[in-house]
Amino acid sequence: MSFTTRSTFSTNYRSVGSVRVPSYSARPVSSAASVYAGAGGSASRISVTRSASFRSSMGVGGLAAGMAGGLAGIGGIQNEKETMQSLNDRLASYLDRVRSLETENRKLESKIREHLEKKGPQVRDWGHYFKTIEDLRAQIFANTVDNARIVLQIDNARLAADDFRVKYETELAMRQSVESDIHGLRKVIDDTNVTRLQLETEIEALKEELLFMKKNHEEEVNGLQAQIASSGLTVEVDAPKSQDLAKIMAEIRAQYDELARKNREELDKYWTQLIEESTSVVTTQSTEVETAEMTLTELRRTLQSLEIDLDSMRN
């Protein structure tokens, strides 16, 4: 059991005119009492704190005014002595009052201590739970940090998956566009082949027509020669020798065939090169799309694994 009492008094002097006037003050008087008791492994603590403060001071302004008036009215040293004596008497009465209040305070504190010692509540000692509480708090903090890290990883995986999904969709659209271009080119090649077949058919028809006209021409020439021979007339035509139509047609046909062959070779070369370039682009994009699909699959697996870990930690 412990009990402390402290009282402090101070005296200050202030000057009013040519007279030093004391100013007294009683600072707070405080007391504290604490009681410790324990039995059978349990401990109880009772603490009492009571403070009473008394302060009496004489204002400088009011005292100065009063003193000035008294001095002005009386104007003598005797009045100053009487004033000082009055102040000393008042100080003594204040000190007596403080002592009586301290005595009453000690009595009240003694009664309070006795009352608390008899009827004070029992306080259980929870100190041995603090270590467990701190450990649990540390575990909760660690789990919270792990959960935040896992959530961050999941968010990063989702963002990466979204990026790869966008890239996959872009590559897929490009692939479909290239496939559409290839389909259009194949259609153009088919149309070109049809046109080539039509031209070959027309060439064959022209060849047949040429043979037919040549045959008719020979028949007409033979008929005219027979008529001339039967009439016995000799007809000499002073005209330049006609050119061989068959030779001319052969030359024209050869030139046309050569031109058609060159055009066909150039067209085949152009479309072959275009198809090879398109096929290369499609192959490259197909490889990139497959790589993106594989990466997306891996990210989905990672995301599922992280979600499973998060669910298990939450449970």
Describe the overall structure.
This is IF rod domain-containing protein. GO terms for molecular function: structural molecule activity. It comes from Cebus imitator (Panamanian white-faced capuchin). Keywords: Coiled coil, Intermediate filament, Keratin, Phosphoprotein. Residues 80-315 form the IF rod domain. This protein has 315 residues and is of the alpha+beta class. It folds into two domains: 2-125, no CATH class; 131-233 and 242-314. It is 74% helix and 14% strand. The protein contains four helices and five strands; from the N terminus they run E-E-E-E-E-H-H-H-H. The strands form two sheets. A three-stranded antiparallel sheet has the order 1-4-5, with helices on one face. A two-stranded antiparallel sheet has the order 2-3. A hairpin with a 2-residue loop joins strand 2 (9-16) and strand 3 (19-26). Helix 3 (127-231) runs antiparallel to helix 4 (245-314). The longest helix is centred in the middle third of the chain and has 105 residues, at 127-231. The two termini are 52 Å apart. Mean pLDDT is 71; it is low at 1-65 and 233-242.
SSE topology:
Blueprint: E1 2-6, E2 9-16, E3 19-26, E4 29-39, E5 42-52, H1 60-74, H2 77-119, H3 127-231, H4 245-314
Antiparallel strand pairs: 1-4, 2-3, 4-5
